[in-house]
Amino acid sequence: MIRSFREAAAVLYRAERKPVLVLALALLLAVPVLPAELWLVKMLVDRIQRWSPGEPITPIIAAAASFAFLLVVGNIALGVPIPMAQTRLNELGTLEGQRLLLRKTSRLPLAAAESPAIKDRRERAMQASVYDTFNTGVEMVQTGLRAIMLFGLLLAYGQWLASATVIMSALLLAVVSGRSADRVEAVGQAQAAERRLLAYYASLMTGREAAKEIRLFGLGGLLADRWRVLYDAQAAQTAKAIRSSELRSIGPELLAALVGGLLAAFLVLLPVSRGLSAGDFSILFMAVTMLVSLLPRLNASLIALRRLGRRWQDFRAYLELDEDGRFGTDERRTEATQTWGAGGERHTACGADGIVRSAGATSDPHTVSVGKELAAAAADGIGGLQLEVRGLRYRYAEAGSETIRGIDLTIPPGCRVALVGENGSGKSTLVKLLAGLYAPSSGEIVWRRKEARSRKVSREVEEQYGGSGEALREGGRLYDGSADNCLPGTDADAEDGGVVPAEGSLAAVFQDFAKLHLTLRELVALGRLSAIDDDPVLLAALNAAGSRQRELDRQIGAPFGGLEPSGGEWQKIVTARALLRQADFVFFDEPTAALDPQAERDAFELFMRVTEGRSALLVTHRLGAAKLADTIFVLKEGRLVEQGSHDELMSQGGEYDRLFRMQASWYE
Ligand SMILES: Nc1ncnc2c1ncn2[C@@H]1O[C@H](COP(=O)(O)OP(=O)(O)OP(=O)(O)O)[C@@H](O)[C@H]1O
Question: Where does the record place the ABC transporter domain (predicted)?
Fold first, then answer.
């Protein structure tokens, strides 16, 4: 509880110091005002009592004026800044809380971000409130200090019995209502998954994705009904928990009120029995009645802070989730590795009989931080990336069996590989693993930097980029390296180490790419943000991807009043983004699925040209296009079953031959 208060205060303090200090100071300075007020009341009453006609009235006026002054200080000097600071802190708390959650979510490993359990955690974390946790904490401190002062006053008058009785009844109330509040909170926490479902139904009914199906199949009513039933069920659960909580606290609350009443009545007898002055009686009476009303408030603050503390624990737990995209948060992955290592070994690559055979000494691969090396690699423009995969296995958290079942392969620099296989054979999963978006359940993915051979930009590519080859070469590498090392059974370059690659050395065009509603400029520049103001480079990338879009500052996406590209146009834009990245290794996961036949053909030709001399992995169901690759990998039920050139695989009469003939039969 104290930790959550401290952490919430730190979040707000980091965001803006002034309102935190103002609120804390104003609330704390208000504490001594209370006993001062009581003392002045006593003084005033005593002076009035002692005053008799003919005596000067000044002492009474002085006491009354001091009391008025204190009221002004309490209500205006301290009262005014408090709501102002609270309003600001409320805004800041909402902003910071959401910012932290959004930033965290965007940094989670893909597998974690996709996991329902993590989504439920986020839902619970979203119930936390930075502002409420801080404000309730400060208010509780203030109320607690006031209560201590009032107790002190009672004790000063020797009222031990009264103090003990009030404390006992307050403790009883705290225990009973604390337990009830915990039960209500537990109900709220358990509803996280249902709240997510509610939000999902609402987004289906209001969003764009499902709008067509909802109208066509008349699903609106069904969804609205489900939403209402779920909502009602949740509301009923909450109401039940609150009802039983309220019923439980009736007894202790009655007791506290009774104690207060009895004590007040008891005090009426005090002046007579102890010879106290009217001022003493006033101060005691006020102290008891204030305490009796303050203690339930203190109790309520305690309960609220406890509830907020629990929510804060969810918030903290979410923010502490492992951010490493390559190793993930899944315990099953502890044995998995994805490393980036220097080269130094010999290998046989792209062999016709599949499955890599590594020979010779392998230098210790070492994990590196992502980012710096990209700059280094981009600056010197050397080398290509070699990908080595050993014993790779992957099982989705919710799946009963492995999707990837022990894959070994090597893709040397400058090697263009096609990955083919039936639906569900694991192609996209493999790409996500290789791209570092999922962490393997076991096995190794090792990237090595290899020396480049020829690094010239081919005339064809230069032309394709609209004469902006120079601009595109900046920060990148376009070259016409040969693919000899990809020929089956041929050894690739050996003994060529080098710097390791980094995040920006990889680029990808995914099958299910995100249609981000940004400007065209931003959409393309996401590939290389440093080029965001370089119009010739951005236009060249669009040109290279076959897109005819030229208005870089045009908003894309109808929901924001912008241009709505067709499916094929969208694909060209995201391809331009990947091209702009100038990565050493490019993944194309079914990048032509939405293109018309001519555009598809153009795209494959372009793919061949722009990936000249660098490594690329193309996932495709168009086996005619796969023929263009240097090597074809055939995946079946999560295993690499064949590997080789088109002619070799056809002559083997295996899975590839079967798939190819089946597809070709459509065109006979
Ligand atoms: N998030 C997930 N959770 C559980 N299982 C998944 C998940 N994503 C994919 N799978 C399963 O993994 C298997 C391989 O899926 P994947 O998308 O990799 O196949 P694919 O070869 O790319 O298929 P396609 O050709 O249809 O695109 C499928 O059985 C699929 O149902």
Answer: 387-662
For the residues 264-276, what does the mean pLDDT come to? 63
To the nearest whole number, what is the mean pLDDT of the chain? 77
Which residue matches tokens 């225990």? Answer: 175
Give the relative orientation of helices 220-274 and 192-206 as an angle to the nearest 10 degrees: 130
Residues contacting residue 451 through CB under 8 Å, at least 6 positions apart:
382, 383, 493, 496, 498
- Alpha carbon distance 9, 578 (integer Å): 43
**Within a 13 Å sphere around the CA of 455, how many CA atoms are in the beta-carbon half?**
13
- Predicted complex ipTM: 0.98
Ligand 1 atom 12: the closest Cα is on which residue? 403
**Ligand 1 atom at shortest distance from the alpha carbon of 429:** 18
Asked if the model's pLDDT at residue 514 lies above 70, the reply is yes
> What are the percentages of helix, strand and coil residues in the chain, rounded to 5?
60, 10, 30
Cα 435 to ligand 1 centre (Å): 16
Closest Cα to atom 24 of ligand 1: 423
> Which of 119, 394, 396, 422 for mutating ligand 1's site (highest number of atoms within 8 Å of CB)?
396
Classify 3 in phi/psi space as left (phi over 0), alpha (psi -120 to 50) or beta: alpha
Does 328 sit in the ligand 1 pocket, CB within 6 Å? no
pLDDT of the residue at 7: 93
421 lines ligand 1 (CB under 6 A): yes
Residue 259 pLDDT exceeds 80: no
For a mutational test of ligand 1's pocket, the pick from 118, 332, 403, 618, i.e. the residue with the most ligand atoms closer than 8 A to its C-beta, is 403
Stretch among 172-176, 437-441, 549-553 having the lowest mean pLDDT? 172-176
Do residues 365 and 339 make contact, with C-beta atoms less than 8 angstroms apart?
yes
CA–CA distance from 154 to each of 157, 261, 293, 533, 558 (Å)?
5, 16, 15, 73, 70
Ligand 1 centroid from CA 430, angstroms: 10
Q: pLDDT tens digit string along 233-249? A: 999 998 998 888 888 77
Element holding 245 (H helix, E strand): helix 220-274
Q: List, in order, residues 6 or more apart from 523 with CB less than 8 Å away.
A: 516, 556, 573, 574, 577
Q: Residue 455 — φ and ψ, nearest 5°?
A: -130, 40
Q: What domains can you pick out in the chain, each with its CATH number? A: 2-319 (1.20.1560.10), 331-667 (3.40.50.300)
Contacts of residue 490, defined as CB under 8 A and 6 or more positions apart, other chains included, come to 349, 350, 484
Nearest ligand 1 atom to alpha carbon 425:
21
Find the Cα–Cα–Cα–Cα dihedral 493, 494, 497, 499, rounded to 10°.
30
**Residue to probe by mutation, ligand 1, list 429, 589, 621, most atoms within 8 Å of CB:** 429
Global pTM exceeds 0.80: no
